[in-house]
Write a structure and sequence with these properties.
Layout: E1 3-6, E2 9-12, E3 15-16, H1 17-23, E4 29-33, H2 34-47, E5 53-58, H3 65-73, E6 77-80, H4 83-92, E7 99-101, H5 108-117, E8 120-123, H6 126-139, E9 143-150, E10 172-173, H7 177-185, E11 190-196, H8 207-225, E12 232-234, H9 252-259, E13 268-271, H10 275-278, E14 282-294, E15 297-302, H11 311-315, E16 321-323, E17 331-337, E18 346-354, E19 361-364, E20 385-390, E21 393-398, H12 403-408
Bound molecules: ligand LLP.
Ligand LLP binds near residues 201, 202, 236, 239 and 311.
Length: about 425
Amino acid sequence: MSFHIGAGYLYCEGIRVKDLQNTVQDSPFYLYSAAQLRANVAAYADALTGLSARISYAVKANGNLTLLKILRDLDCAATLVSGNELRLALLAGFAPADMVFNGNGKQRDELALAVQYGVTVNVDSEFDLEHIIAATRDAGKPVEVLLRVNPDIQPDVHPYVATGMRESKFGIRAERLPWFLDRLKREPRLRLVGLHCHLGSTIKDVQVFHDAAVLMGDLTANVRQQGFDLRYLNLGGGLGIDYERAGTSPTPADLLDALRGRLPDDLTLIIEPGRSIVGNAGALICRVIGVKDNGDKHFIVTDGSMAALIRPSLYDAYHHIGFIEPVNGMPYVFDVVGPVCESADFLGKARVLPTPHEGAGLVVYDAGAYGHAMSSSYNLQLRPAEYLVDGNRVTQIRRAETFDDVALAQSPLSVIMPPIESADGQP
Ligand code: LLP
């Protein structure tokens, strides 16, 4: 069991979280369960049994190096969205042949790195294709590419996390494919090995994956007719998780059931889950600073804030909130907020919770994906530490940002531009 309650206390596997909170200096901090991470990968691996398929973990969801190493050891590949993610994936030990580099604005130095290492690159636009071609020319090396198609499918999610609709900034419209194929025919260094699409994130209705598989299967057949030897179909990530704890979220098995029979047998399926791998394997552990009310409105103020976890503020996302220890005060409807000087700073709204004592431990569940990864040091709230539990062992897998980190990065150590001198030699 990963996160569970026993006698009023939150446990992460064999560790009582309150004991950990009392031991470490940091607050808030992120806490991960290795067992949950393994279970999530196993659920995908089981669902994929009998298919030629690859789980390509979306590093953007959580790029902690220790977690990446665990995922690599579980035979995941890596989906990347920047040159720095590529560097980190190399550090974690992923083989370049197991990486896919995505993005609508890949920069020339990032493409140079991808080509140099032999990473598969997704083509997102006309200019992106030209930049990839230039990178292969500069390096004198070939590269395998996928064409990212914009499937124009409405995934019924928050507009900020929908990526595969006509008005999205990602991918190529199906009507433009002939142009890309003609261009690719003239560039022998680029080897088109498959098509890619990504519908969006937090998807609860697996029917949309079915629709995407049908569309992408048809497009694959068309592209093959033009003589391209396609080997992969990459359907992206996007499976939602049970943030609401309603027990109704689709599982990897539901996702694969929606795809089964819709995929050409001679293609390797790539899927790129992020959230459904790390989301419920992580929680944000905070401390209550105090409780206040403004007339009818009640607030629990914690040291966790939108700087540590921005999803509630940015997407109005729901994360389940509880206490890590017995709390027996009078219940009220609370907004759970942080100390950041902004009304958008909340972790949860209108939650019925008992009134906590100062210093009580509070947990924001399912924060493993896009939690630390999207944290900031806004208001100079320093980015939190991360801890990993594996059985009865806890390891610190990232130290918290320190004031020195922030201050030293801003010391004027060098003068970048010499002052401009006027004609008379005076500055
Ligand atoms: N592949 C591609 C090309 C992607 O753009 C993404 C995520 C994924 C895979 C992984 O999707 P997942 O399985 O994690 O849903 N910050 C937002 C999520 C943005 C996701 C963007 N793309 C959030 O906190 O909900």
